[in-house]
Structures are given as structure tokens and as C-alpha cells.
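Regression report. Comparing outputs from two consecutive submissions.

Submission 1:
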Amino acid sequence: MINFKELNGIPLIISPNLGKPQFISIAKENLGSINNFEVELLVIAYIEQDNNQMFEFFKNNIKLQPILKMNSTIKKGERGDFIDGNIIEVTAAPLISMFDENLILNYDIESPRENLVYENIFQDRRKFFILKVKFSLNNELKKLISIKRNLLFDLIQQVKLNEDFDNKLSNSKDNKKRTIYRINYHSIVLTLQNWEDFTIVHATDLHIAKRNDEILGVILKNYNNKLITNLIRLIRTIINIKRHLSKRSKKNEPIEKRFINPNNNLRLFIKQMNELYENNLIDFIILTGDLIDFCYCSDNIVESDEFELHNTNWGIFYNIILN
């Protein structure tokens, strides 16, 4: 989540990211001789900021953190030490229309989309840069890749808030000696996959929403309420008719077992996909359609200028993906 007030004046790495990771393929026979690899990062900055400023600002402030393995107890990835990045090149990136044929045919290009600027997604940031960054690859990580075939990394932007970058950032006492880390989770993938034979899992229309985790509690709390009771009877009648027509016989289950929570479906899906990934049975997942219901949570409508991720169902989706 981007805190624009806190990061005023700071250029931001926006891609690759959780939604569009960068895959870097390595031939298995070459793995032993490769000691480093390069990535391309897309940065959004201010109009008056130039290439040299980008180099100085991001120097020593870009890191990767490998996800070494899945912790079977907590079902989360265990991460290794930071790997510092060395900037090779900084270039300005022209705006490209999201309908541009070249962009559509070359989706791997880390190119800026003009609609992000026109819709003021990043507030006053309206200029894009591409950073080429080199990272080292040690023997421990190469061994992991040879075993797992894939290795994921979080991309980390270190921001020192006590630095007055381009005179935009306040030097108040609250900001002194503060360092924060902006993390683009699961953004870089080193893989032995040659993409001649691969497996995709496609999930669509997840309909994630805050209320999905709350509805059952409300129903059970008011289970004896006459209106709720009549509604449940009606639902049971409809279910029984459908079962009769389909010649299915099944005892009525408690409502908590019959209630379908799309959020829990995603949680179960993630668990299953992690197991497949750990066994090298899938290469990547595509999520499409209505990933969430309404953008704003129904109990937290705010003005557009107060829009923050935590006020929305995107925040619920984000937290489920990462937890």
C-alpha cells in the first residue's frame, strides 16, 4: 500500500509486482556458470526529476529477498538475506497507450501506461524511468534453483525518510533517521523453465469482499429471528426441490457447512496451488474476471480523495493473497 503523504517527493518502483512478476529463464546447463542476473524496473517519478537523480536516489536502495521454502507449519514462505542491487543503466521511458499494438504483442515490456498518468493514480508523479539493475547469484541460491526449478524474490525499495530528496520531503523531527521498506512481493522469478512445455492454472471471478467473512456470523447471530428463520426455510425448500429434480438425496447440513464464502475459496485455492508449486506441478497462475465485488467496502464508504487500499475490497484481496 502506498502512503502518498509519507512518501511525498519519493520516486516509486511500481513494476514488476505481485500482479505481473518478471520471469527470468536460465538454461539448466548454464546455471553453474551464472553468477549474476539483471532485471528491469519501472519507476514513476516527478517531471523535474532526471536520470542522474534517479541513479543517486536508488543507488544502494534496491534489494531482492529470496523466498527459500514454504514453512509447513504456518504455510508461509521463509525468506533469506537481502541481495543488494547495482544499477547499470537509467533511461527515461515514454508513455505508451494501453491500446498500442506493440504493447499488446510484447507484454513482457515494462512500459508505462498513459492512463495511469491521466487518471492521476500516482498523484503528482507523471514521469517514468526504466532502471536496469544487476544482482549476484550465489551457490546456495543456484542449488535451490536446480532442485526447485523456480526461485521467487521479493523486490524491496529502501526509502530513507530523513533525506530531503529534491526539497520535496519534509525534514521534520518525526522523519529523522526513519527508514522504511516498500515491498513488491513475489516480483522476480528465476526459472529453469524453457516455456516449451508448461502448466497454467486459470481462476476467474473470485468476488472477494469484506462482507463475505461477516455474513455467516450475522446469520447465525439472528438465526432465531422470525424473518431469518423464514428465509432459511425458503432456501431449504428451494434446495430440496433442486435435489429432487436432480434425483440427489442428501441430508440437510448445518448452515455453516452449506454457506459458501468466496474468500475461503480463495484461501483454499492458494493452499492447493502452493502445494502444486512446491512439487513443480505448475508454472504460474492467471486470475481474471471480477476479482473483487465493489471496490469500496460497504461499511466504509469514503470520499474519493480519501481513497486508501485498506478502505477497499482490494485490501481484503491483497491480504488474503499474502497471508
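Submission 2:
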Amino acid sequence: METFHKGEIYWKTTPSTEAPFTAPSMPENRDTDRMLYFYISDYMFNTLFFAAQSNRYLQLNITASDLPASARGVLNTTCAGVIPTCIGGLIPAIGQKYPNSIVDLRLFNGVAPVMDVTSAGVGVNTSGAIDLNVHKPGTNKGEVFLVSFSANMTFRSDVLMNGSVIHARITYLNWNLKTVRSEVGPVDDKFIDFLIKYALDVFLIPKLNDYASKGIPLPIGKEVSLKNASVVLAKDTIVIATDVAYTPSVQRDVDGALKFVPYDSMSRSITKTSVTSRPATTTSTTSPSVTTTSALSEFKLDW
């Protein structure tokens, strides 16, 4: 059996907004060693990305509290040591103008991510902006804008099966940053590229993997389980090849198509529930009746 999944995913609050692209064709299957094949088009994921982008869902704030304790100092504006280990050391103007403060990152997607599935793997490309803002802890002063970067991001992932759930794991992430606007003078893109990559590697990849690990359940019933499932990647398509086992939740009596009940047992059961027992067939005119006749006896059930 083969099932093909290439429907469009809409945002709940804007169900009439359609994606401006069409579904690609799906490859033909020549394998027959599994009972069931799920074909999942990358078009489904791309329409989801488009809907999320259109509804401004793909935005992310990263603060020091989001990072592991050992990495939080990277967003400080003041740090000690000959080798700079914080953003204020890499961009001295920030450290001089805003000492003992903390920088926050704001990530905005400029375009919807695009997933591309090939036999070599699954890749996602997107672009957007990263803004740096500074604030001083313990004060009621608002954030101050520092620098804005354009960002191009590429990541690749493995596709895995866990029971009947398909999920992913990020294996590669690459950022290319370029300064667009600065309120603190010239910024060396190489230094800031290294710094932001470090912050994103310790936060963004684990967060993406957390989302991806939840996965998407395949459309099967509760009484069906997958056996020997494997993932095959093809052009624009993720293929799940699997065997199937069926286990009914309620065990039914399967002792033949018709179960034999001795007539004597049935007669005794009828006798216990009958209102009258007569030796001959009689028809009641006052209430509905059921009459049974046999070579042994006759019973009338009034109800």
C-alpha cells in the first residue's frame, strides 16, 4: 500500500492565505519489500514555513538567561583578560559606552525558510536579520539599539523514525553575517560572526532539536504499529517504508463464524424470561408477541 501526502498547511487565523508555489511531482516507487509506504512531500513543510513567516511567528529573542551558565558571559559588555571573551571586548565601543551591561539578540526572518529534500539529505535555507540591543541590569532604562546584521542561514538535518513519529535532528548549521547598520562605529564582521555563532550554537541548535524531536505523527490508528520502518530520501520527498502490525484493543470471540448454542440451553433461557408457557400457538390481541414453535415445545413471549 502507498499513501501520498502533499497537502498545503494553513495558519489557523489566516486560513485563506495560500502559499505562492505549487507542489512538485513525487517519484515513483519501485520497491515492494515493505507492506506500507508513506510519501511525504517537502511542499507540506514549505507551506508551513510560509504560513509561519506570514504570521510573524519566526522571531526569536536570545538573552543571557537563555544560554548555559558557562556561556552567559559572552553577552556582557565588560570582561577581563587579554583575549576578549565578551561582546564588549570584541567591540570596544560597546564596552566603553555601555559598561557593566548585557546585550540581547533579536532574530527576525526576512523570508520564509525553504526545505530542499534530495537523496543526499535534507537542507533548509533562510535569511533575515539579527539586531543587538543593550540594557543595564537593575535599572528601569529601556533597551538601546547597537548593531544590525543581515544573516543567511543554512542547516542540514537527519530524518529519523521513533515508533510512528517522524522527527529530525540538526547536524549542521552555518551563518553568514554582514553589518547593515551600527550605532557604535565600525564593526569587524569576522569577530562578531564568531561571537554570534557561538551564542547560537549553544542555544539555537539545541532549541531547534528540541522542536524537531517532538516530530510529526504519521496518520495511523491506535491499534496499528509500525515494524522495520526505514527512511528513504528522494527528490522533494521523504519516504517511510515500513511493515505493519495490527493488535485490536478489544479481544473478540473468534470461535468460528457462527457459534453453536445447544437448543436445550436456548429453550431454558427462553423459559426463564417468558411470561406465559402454553402447549399450543396463541396470538395475543392486547400486546405485541413473538411465537416460537419446535418439535419439543411451544413458547409465547409477551412484552
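Expected: both submissions complete independently.
Actual: both completed, but the second showed a warning that disappeared on reload.
Relevant detail on submission 2: Residues 263-302 form one domain.
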